[in-house]
Amino acid sequence: MAGRYSGVVKSWNGSKGYGFLSSPQITGDVMFLRSHLPADAKEVRGKFLEGKTVNFDLTTGPDGRAQGANMQITAAEGDFVAGEVKSYSERHGYGFIMSSSLKGEVRFNRTDLDALLPGVDLKGELVICKVLLMPDGKLRAEKIMFQSSKIANRLKAGGMMGFGKGGGKGGFGQMDYGMDGNGFGKGGFGKGGFGQGYGMMDYGMDGNGFGKGGFGKGGFGKGGFGDDGRDQGQGAQGIVIAYNSGKGYGFLKCGKADSDVYFKSQDAYQEGTIVSFTLKINKDGKPSAINLQPGISSGQTYTGTVKTFLDTKGYGFISVPGQPSDVYFNKDLAPAALQNGSLVGKSVRFTVQVSADGKARAEQGAQFY
Predict the structure, then answer these.
(1) In this protein, which residues make up the domain named CSD (predicted)?
(2) How far apart are CA 224 and CA 246, in angstroms?
(3) Thinking of the domain 234-294, which architecture would CATH place it in?
(4) Residue 246: what pLDDT?
């Protein structure tokens, strides 16, 4: 097979180095590998790549299946693009990025990045950034991020190079899509480990935390995973990416897990099926799913109750009867009269949009009452 095609990336697993794309010119999904991506996009994560339009050649893999090769990621003005730092002057406070998705170099300023370690050399580092076309026709970068946490931790001031002894009493405090104010507990990262547990996380732990012992001096501490030393699991939703009917197991893509989620079931699941389940972390640190059931689907209307709402952050979560995973909603969905009040406990009727990793989000037109 040979030729140039156009398609859209359906999924990308950066930790395993493979993904799938679809094209109206080809029947069925097409697999591609990290080596098929442009050199300046080798470390991108799924959230960046999924949904991107790409041009590619079609080849045959060792197993005889079609594979995409020589991929080029297209971009429009205002899109985030992957690139490589061509040059950077710490003394002058600016540098230039080159991207295979663009023609010409993109200027950036030191202030577009988080604080860096003194004397760091950015040349050759992989980034993603939003690109703007200036009135003079030149390209300007903003919102620059490193393509992986590994790169960021190596270059950024305060990167998690080691936990040290201290950590302070305050823990991490409040984080977007993370802690709700309970933080990482009194112990911080110091000698006391993570202190009293994780507390409640949005898109994360549900309040059971990791137990009172935290990670602490003695490994996972007294509590380990919960008060009885076991991972109690959390509600989650994901999309089936593979299922072996002969062996009765498969894998899910889930936004709450850093890697593919293993599940075992005698019920046959088609790729692309949305399911909800209980997400557990095994002793080897790998995620698995149990108690699978049909998940919340795009375009469907549901009725639920506002479970949590962070007014200062402008978002919250809705619980749906019979579903273990909550639905994200933005503050703007609520009527103006309710936005500054307490939304917790309010009933809401809404239509859902599901992202590529299975996360459910309430769409415009939600009715609160």
Answers:
(1) 4-73, 235-294
(2) 36
(3) Beta Barrel (2.40)
(4) 86
Are residues 20 and 30 in contact, defined by beta-carbon separation less than 8 angstroms? yes
- For 267, counting Cβ atoms within 10 Å of its Cβ (0-12 exposed, 13-18 middle, 19+ buried), the class is exposed
> What would the pLDDT profile of 104-152 be if each residue is shown by its tens digit?
899 999 888 888 888 888 999 999 999 988 888 899 998 899 998 889 9
pLDDT of the residue at 5: 94
- The DSSP symbol for 270 reads -
Cα–Cα distance measured from residue 42 to residue 15, given in angstroms and rounded to the nearest whole number:
11
Neighbours of 367 (CB within 10 A): 13
Phi, psi of 347 (to 5 degrees): -80, 150
CB 227 within 8 A of CB 211: yes
The Cα–Cα gap between 142 and 134 comes to: 12
CA pair distance 165, 242, nearest whole angstrom: 43
How far are the Cα atoms of 310, 316, 339 from residue 335, in angstroms, in the given order?
16, 14, 6
Of the options 2.70.50.60, 3.40.50.880, 3.50.50.60, 2.40.50.140, the CATH number for the domain spanning 301-368: 2.40.50.140
Cα–Cα separations (whole angstroms), residue 17 to 14, 107, 109: 5, 30, 31
Residues 6+ apart with CB under 8 A from 203: 177, 255, 256, 328, 359
